[in-house]
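General statements about sequence and structure are easier to judge against a single worked case. For one protein, we set the task of working out the structure tokens from the amino acid sequence alone. The sequence in question and its structure tokens are set out directly beneath this paragraph.
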Amino acid sequence: MSFTVYLSGEIHTDWRDQIRRGAKEAGLDVSFTEPVTDHPASDAAGDHLGENDSQFWRDHQSAKVNSIRTRTLIGQADMVVVRFGDQYKQWNAAFDAGYCAALGKPYVTLHDADIVHPLKEVDAEAQAWCTTADQVVETLRYVLRT
């Protein structure tokens, strides 16, 4: 079995690379997709549409352009991994998880135990809660078992 996995959420650590490496080492047939992880590029995604008078409208415009990629790739994914890091609050990741839940798209969360409480609703809809990239890989290994 082959799978496409969208890697959503936190962009400041190498968790995506850890999962890719682990899946490759495990010999899993997985394709990975992700949002734009270059923070300045993501923030400027809508700048080509014209200047705005406020940061709100710049962010709004860029969020809409970014959503084209996000919605498309989540829609094409067999499963989504939603990572919540400890450095920043990832509201976009929570939105992606909610979008997955609304679509009936399987997703797993990846975060430390110290943020279980604020993520209780997000985790309640997830098919699994992982605390390490290795647990994500093991989940994929099980799901793709032939």
Notes: Strands lie at 3-9, 30-33, 79-83, 107-110, 128-130. Residues 3-143 form a domain with the Rossmann fold fold (CATH 3.40.50.450). The chain has a mean pLDDT of 95. The longest strand covers residues 3-9.
